[in-house]
Amino acid sequence: MADSTALRVRRARAHKAGDHSLCRRCSVVRGEAPQRVMALPSVPAVAEFDPAAEMRNLAVRLVAAHEADPPNTLLARELRMTLRELIGIEGSASGFDDLAAEYGTA
């Protein structure tokens, strides 16, 4: 009996997310390709957590991702929203001087 549409969709979504438990014929199940495992970063202690610094790190990563894939409108939107949030956290655009210097826009 053939699989239902719901099961095929569920299998495809799980495969795309890296979960191969429902796969039947993908290269990971056949042993031809290594399974990619994403390791989560360690969570910093509460005393070390700095939201403004995390937003700045996110902005740097988004700039690099956007430069690698300029047509990606979702990246552009997220970068814009992150920069707007940083302006609110830091009070002015002057906090972007080191970002601008790093990427040659200063």
Would you give an account of this structure?
This protein has helices spanning 5-16, 27-30, 51-68, 73-90, 97-102. It is elongated and about 65 Å long. It has 106 residues and is mainly α. It folds into 2 domains: 1-38, no CATH class; 46-102, no CATH class.
Summarize the structure.
The chain has 106 residues and is an all-alpha fold. The chain is built from five helices and no strands. Helix 3 packs antiparallel against helix 4.
Task: Lay out the secondary structure.
Blueprint: H1 5-16, H2 27-30, H3 51-68, H4 73-90, H5 97-102
Helix pairs in contact: 3-4
The computed structural class is mainly alpha
> Using DSSP, what is the number of strands?
0
Sketch the major β-sheet: none
Rg for CA atoms? 20 Å
The end-to-end span amounts to 64 Å
| Number of continuous helical runs | 5
Low-confidence stretches: none
Mean pLDDT: 76
Number of domains: 2
- Along the chain, the helix and strand elements come as HHHHH
* Beta-strand content bin: under 5%
Shape: elongated
| Helix coverage percent | 40-55%
Identify the notable features of this structure and list them briefly.
single chain; 106 residues; mainly alpha; 5 helices; 0% strand; elongated
